Structure formats: C-alpha cells, structure tokens
From TrEMBL:
SUPFAM superfamilies: P-loop containing nucleoside triphosphate hydrolases
Listed Gly residues bias regions: 1-11
Database matches in InterPro entries: nSTAND1, P-loop_NTPase
UniProt region (Disordered), positions on chain: 1-41
Domain Novel STAND NTPase stretches: 90-290
Protein name: Novel STAND NTPase 1 domain-containing protein
Residues spanning the membrane: none
Length: 318
C-alpha cells in the first residue's frame, strides 16, 4: 500500500514524490473526500481571508496618508464636453466665420455677434476672434450678469470683481471708460460683452438704458469700440433699445452685425475628423471604425426631431 501522510517517505511531501513524470498519483490522493493536506482546508481559507483583509486595510491607510491617486495628465482627450473653447485652444471648422467677424470688427466701432443658443459664439470669440484682435486693439472682455456698471468698471480697470454695497452709477462707468482709453493709447480700446442677453434678463429697465447710453457716448467720442455677443432671440430687444437711444443710428448702426450659424453636416464632419485624427494616427486599425463613428454621430446630431409639432426654431436646436 502506498504510504500516506506520516507513513514513510522520510521528509518528503506526498505531492513532491519523485516517482517519474508519468507515474500515477498516490492512491490516497485519488480517494473521494481526501486532499493533499487533510484537515487543513478551513485553515487555509481563513488564512487567505486574513490576507485579503490585511491588503484592503493597508491600501486604505496608504490612501488616507497620501491622498487619492492623481489622474494621468498626459492622456489625450478627444472630446472636451459642454464648455467653450479658450484662448489656448484651436477652434476647428470656423475659419471663414472668424474672417467675416474680423472684417466686421475692423469696419465699424459698434458690432453685434448673434446666434442661437449653443451655436459657438463664446468659442468663436475666445479661441479665434479676440486673440487675433489683441494684435491690434487693447481688448477688454466682460459679462454683465446682474451688475452691469460694477462688472464693466472692474473689467475696464482690470481688477477682480467684488459686489459693492452701493453699486456704481453711470458717472463711474464713464470715468472708467475714459481712463481705460487713455491707458490703452496709442492702441484703440475694444470692449467685448459676451452673453449680452443678460442685460435684458437680470437688469432693470432704467439701469439697462443708462448703461447703453454711457457706452453710446463713449463710442461717439472715439474712446471705445463695442462688440456685443448675444442670443438671436434677444436681438429684437437690443434693436429696440438702440433705436430709442440713437434714433438716427449714428452710433448704434444696427446694420453692423454677423449671424453665426450652427455647424451643418459637412463642417461638423470636418471638425470630428480633426478631433479624431490623433487617435487614428496612433493605430491605423482604428481608422475605419472612427470614420464610421464620425458619420453616425453627425447623422444622429443633425437628425430632425420625431415630434413634428416642434416649431422650426426648436428643430434647429434639438
């Protein structure tokens, strides 16, 4: 009978018997219910569980001491998400629009950039138009929010905005414009107001009129050039106010505007191809898959809504 554990095989574990590579395993190993370490199965399982708990505790203590693991910073990102492009970004697919807006900006002291919500007005300004304008103008950018006088004054002084207990008045804005124009010389001063619809949403009527009147006087005096970007559905409110303040349109010439359209199929596909090019260059096997993905994504984004009750304006934005 083959020796079992504790029977012969001096100092040799049964699993290490040197009976040759083709030898059959000992009979006691093949009996039902028997293991290489009879009676030690529960002990081994308990020891494995203890090691797992120890590992998790060690990992938890390490993270508490060192903090969370920082995400890798060198991983390229194909899609930036719902945020506008900035001055350090390359804006694809908008070269012609940028050129048209640049001609408008140089031809008149007052201009309007309009477009539907989400069409890319802020991206066009921040990533293409204003960096180009900085070569010629002293550029000041501002959003009005609910405090147009305070926001404009701090932007013109290039100071951080702090809400004041007593908001500035029209005279303070006029003085800030004069000082900013003097400091910018010999370059002309360009004031760009983004999200101009805020002027008609969060500001009282009399404050709105006073603010635009101060800007009109500064434009007429040659102190500043004004570019206002706003949503198309607020354009009629701006036109009405400008006509009230300047009936002859000597300063607020409403013919100086540019309407930015949302990307259509061909430009949108060109933009996606540009964004996906780094991934396709890394692995040629992905090119066809990325090409199919870009085509499907453009088709899905530009697909008209199924609900025909939506108005035409809704169809452009859904």
């Amino acid at each position: 009978m083959a020796p079992g554990p504790g029977h012969g095989g001096v100092g040799v574990h049964p699993t290490r018997r040197r009976d040759g590579p083709g030898a059959a395993p000992p009979q006691w190993l093949t009996r039902p219910g028997r293991t290489a370490w009879p009676g030690r199965g529960p002990h081994l399982a308990a020891r494995a569980r203890a090691r797992t708990v120890h590992h998790h505790c060690f990992h938890l203590v390490t993270r508490l001491i060192l903090g969370p693991v920082a995400p890798p910073s060198s991983v390229p990102r194909l899609f930036r998400g719902p945020r506008p492009y900035g001055a350090d970004d390359v804006l694809p697919g908008r070269q012609q629009e940028c050129e048209d807006c640049w001609q408008l900006l140089r031809s008149a002291p007052f201009g309007i950039l309009e477009g539907e919500s989400g069409c890319g007005k802020s991206s066009l300004l921040n990533a293409a138009l204003l960096p180009r304008a900085q070569r010629v103008f002293q550029v000041i950018t501002c959003r009005l929010a609910d405090d147009p006088f305070g926001r404009l004054c701090t932007a013109l002084r290039q100071a951080p905005y702090r809400a004041a207990a007593t908001p500035p008045i029209a005279d303070a804005l006029a003085e800030a414009l004069t000082q900013a124009a003097r400091a910018a010389a010999p370059r002309p001063l360009l004031l760009c107001i983004d999200q101009g619809e805020e002027l008609f949403v969060t500001v009282r009527d009399e404050v709105r009129a006073q603010c635009l009147e101060v800007l009109r006087e500064a434009i007429a005096a040659g102190q500043v050039r004004l570019l206002m970007a706003l949503r198309s559905d607020f354009r009629d409110l701006l036109d009405r106010l400008c006509r009230t303040l300047d009936p002859t349109q000597q300063t607020f010439d409403l013919g100086g505007y540019y309407t930015l359209q949302a990307l259509r199929a061909a430009p949108a596909r060109a933009v996606l191809d540009e964004l996906l090019r780094p991934a396709a260059a890394q692995d040629a096997r992905l090119r066809q898959q990325l090409d199919d993905f870009a085509a499907a994504l453009v088709a899905d984004l530009l697909r008209p809504p199924r609900d025909q009750r939506l108005c035409q304006e809704d169809e452009k934005t859904v």
